[in-house]
Design goal:
Blueprint: H1 4-27, H2 33-58, H3 61-66, H4 139-146, E1 165-166, E2 172-176, H5 181-186, H6 193-204, E3 213-216, H7 230-247, E4 251-255, H8 257-264, H9 270-273, E5 278-280, E6 283-288, H10 291-296, H11 301-315
Parallel strand pairs: 2-3, 2-4, 4-6
Antiparallel strand pairs: 1-3, 5-6
Helix pairs in contact: 1-2, 4-7
């Protein structure tokens, strides 16, 4: 082991470098001792690794071949002696003083937004302020609550509010879409060309107009007879529902898609809904075509008549029979 003195000499040089470095740190106030302690450990590790490597090289070749030594860690590059009071590198701050790392951003799967539901799929309208919940109102009370309605933009172009007409205790109610020009002028539902056809349909079922009750989803005429818009239906719907609660019929005939879809909360096309019994708050409901549609499509009158015959059968009536 002739190289042991040399090895000891090299270790002494490494430790001397470390001692000088620590002395310089003490002179500078000991501000970076935590970092230098780590550096000292690295320097010591480098020196010990060098000693082990040299000792291994001094062993006989046969001993090395018989028992291979584990791979020694790569020695760290020798640290240069540092001049006193030389500018020190920025030290690593203690863990307690480090700024907290930004929390990893969690990327959640995008949630699909449901499409905006049509006006007919809205939640049920609440009770009217002037009507006691759970009690049967009168049509007069509902009309007073409606007042000179300004609840939607339809009020700007109307001439008259078209509330409803007929028997306030009717067993059969017809619900349409909205007033036309003639209805707006007279303030009475279904008095124009579509209304004349509806009157013939009612009479063919064995009723008179005064026997039934007739009203619309919206009470004011949409400009140019366009379809009611969702906000207009929302504003008027509580009054329609209050009217049905006041009359309490046995059957409702919903004329056209707006009446059927609004009452049933169902966006199915009227061509698929018609002719099939449905139910509205415990009341039987028959969807069918609107008389205005039948004027444009006379061939569909046969289907509408089949729908009305089911209503007649429910009441035990025969075509043309009065009672």
């Amino acid at each position: 082991m002739s190289e042991a003195p040399e090895t000891s000499q090299e270790l002494s040089e490494v430790l001397e470098d470390l001692r000088r470095h620590l002395l310089w740190q003490e002179e500078d106030g000991g501000r970076f001792l935590q970092v230098d302690a780590r550096l000292a450990a690295e320097l010591r590790g480098a020196g010990l690794a060098r000693l082990r490597a040299q000792a291994q090289a001094a062993k006989p070749a046969s001993s090395v071949a018989a028992q291979p030594a584990p791979a020694a860690p790569q020695p760290a590059p020798a640290a240069r002696p540092m001049a006193p009071r030389a500018p020190a590198p920025e030290p690593e701050r203690p863990l307690a003083a480090r700024a907290p790392e930004a929390a990893p951003v969690r990327r959640e799967a995008p949630v699909a937004r449901p499409l905006e539901a049509p006006a007919q799929a809205r939640p049920a309208a609440g009770p009217l302020p002037g009507v006691v919940e759970g009690e049967r109102p009168t049509l007069d009370e509902i009309r007073r609550e409606l007042g000179d309605c300004r609840r939607c933009k339809l009020c700007d172009g109307r001439k008259n509010i078209v509330f409803g007409s007929g028997n306030p205790r009717a067993e059969l109610v017809f619900v349409g879409e909205g007033p036309g020009a003639d209805e707006d002028a007279q303030g009475v539902p279904f008095v124009g060309a579509a209304g004349q056809l509806l009157t013939k349909m009612i009479e063919a079922m064995g009723y008179r107009r005064d026997d039934v009750y007739i009203c619309n989803v919206v009470k004011c005429r949409p400009p140019n007879n366009r379809n009611p818009e969702p906000d207009e239906v929302t504003a008027c719907e509580p009054f329609l529902r209050a009217q049905l609660r006041a009359v309490q019929p046995k059957v409702i005939v919903a004329l056209g898609k707006f009446a059927a879809q609004t009452l049933l909360r169902d966006t199915t096309a009227i061509t698929k809904m018609r002719g099939n019994w449905r139910e509205y708050e415990g009341i039987k409901l028959m969807p069918t075509f609107h008389p205005a549609y039948l004027l444009r499509q006379p061939a569909e009158k046969k289907k509408a008549w089949e729908d009305l015959q089911q209503v007649m059968k429910f009441f035990g009536k025969q075509p043309g029979q009065r009672g």
